[in-house]
Amino acid sequence: MLKPLLIGASLAALLAGCSSHPAQPLDQRLLGEWQGTRDKNGPCQFFTWNSSFRADGRFEISFFADEQRTRLIQTERGTWTAHYGKNHLTTDGVKTTEVYDYRFVDADTVEYVSIKADPTADCQADYRFTEHRVGR
């Protein structure tokens, strides 16, 4: 009698330990290190950035005021998901999620178009940009 009860309790504990939310989808092609540059002649302030998308659903993006990436503006960290051509970025401490349409130009180049910007972002203009994989 005790053995079935222990098995049942163990199974219940195991199931309770599982997340009730499914794992968030991550487009595996986006994992890794990337670099981008905002258009110097575009509607928004010029800057460059390095971004890192990790398999644990975390991202880090460092923004620089120069092409050489020596004058750091700021670094943002947060969570990301990406699937079906949409990349969602939620920066730590910011309630609004930024959403981008994306498409691969080739295995190491991704084109993004902003469709939902963070209201605290430096530029609210719709814009597109390209990121290039680093170190491959």
TrEMBL record:
Cleavable signal peptide: 1-23
Key words, A-Z: Signal
Name of the protein: Lipoprotein
